[in-house]
């Protein structure tokens, strides 16, 4: 392995941060690294909102489910899928043409663009000695988050990202076996399920050690529960109201 891969293999989520600031120069470098991620047809359909105002962070922490580390981290990035700029370009250059900004394809492009850029930024932040954690909880009260951040039509918050100097030591959570996710030439369903069986054993042992025996539920059982409970069903009507997923 090289240094880049070694850094990637050491990734862990950080949920406790020191008060040390992230400088403007460091923040600019992190987001600029994010911008160098691949983008479909160079649409670059995302925007990053850096939140450092204490009251703003406290409100976002509340909206994300009272996650204290949103409030405690020195800078909180909100990664937004953004078709606003593209829609404006279409109106200015081809006002006589019908816009398809509200298509499912463009929703996917914007969301994927935001995800690719944010992961680039995460690696950049970790290379500078910071820790990060993604905050999907912003979608729980997504309409209020959008209002707080002043998001126009064609923009939605995909998730947040806490950045700061880690104030905790955490282990690296094991991932699915490589065979479960790396298939050759075609999908191998049997190989995928066998990987889950193996992963259940790994995660059960990991959680047992991490919680001193208090939690031993295997991964597949946790995922079964996740998929059979309604979660954030309000997101689709919100997205439709913002001009997404209409075609």
UniProtKB/TrEMBL annotation:
Question: What SUPFAM superfamilies does its record include?
Answer: FMN-dependent nitroreductase-like
The record's NCBIfam families line, in alphabetical order, gives: PRK10765.1
Q: Where is the Nitroreductase domain?
A: 9-164
Q: What is this protein called?
A: FMN reductase (NADPH)
Task: Name the Enzyme Commission number(s) assigned to this protein.
Answer: 1.5.1.38
The entry sums up its family as follows: Belongs to the flavin oxidoreductase frp family.
InterPro entries recorded for this chain? Flavin_OxRdtase_Frp (IPR016446), Nitroreductase (IPR029479), Nitroreductase-like (IPR000415)
Give the record's keywords alphabetically. Flavoprotein, FMN, NADP, Oxidoreductase
Question: Which Pfam families does its entry note?
Answer: Nitroreductase
Q: Which domain of life is it from?
A: Bacteria
An example of a GO molecular function for this protein is: FMN reductase (NADPH) activity
| EC class (word) | oxidoreductase
């Amino acid at each position: 392995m090289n240094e880049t891969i070694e850094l990637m293999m050491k990734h862990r989520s950080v949920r406790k941060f020191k008060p040390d600031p992230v400088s403007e120069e460091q923040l600019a470098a992190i987001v600029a690294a994010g911008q160098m991620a691949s983008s479909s047809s160079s649409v670059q359909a995302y925007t990053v909102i850096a939140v450092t105002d204490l009251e703003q962070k406290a409100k976002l922490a509340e909206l994300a489910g009272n996650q204290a580390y949103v409030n405690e981290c020195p800078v909180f990035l909100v990664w937004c899928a953004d078709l606003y700029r593209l829609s404006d370009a279409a109106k200015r250059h081809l006002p006589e043409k019908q816009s398809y900004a509200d298509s499912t394809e463009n929703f996917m492009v914007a969301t994927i663009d935001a995800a690719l850029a944010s992961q680039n930024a995460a690696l950049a932040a970790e290379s500078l000695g910071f820790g990060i954690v993604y905050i999907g909880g912003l979608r729980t009260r997504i309409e209020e988050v959008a209002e707080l951040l002043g998001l126009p039509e064609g923009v939605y918050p995909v998730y947040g990202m806490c950045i700061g100097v880690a104030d905790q030591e955490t282990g690296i959570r094991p991932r699915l076996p490589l065979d479960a996710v790396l298939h050759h030439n075609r999908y191998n369903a049997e190989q995928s399920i066998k990987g889950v069986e193996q992963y259940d054993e790994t995660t059960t042992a990991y959680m047992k050690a991490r919680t001193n025996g208090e939690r031993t539920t295997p991964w597949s059982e946790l995922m079964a529960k996740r998929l059979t409970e309604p979660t954030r069903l309000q997101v689709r009507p919100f997205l439709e109201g913002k001009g997404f997923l209409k075609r």
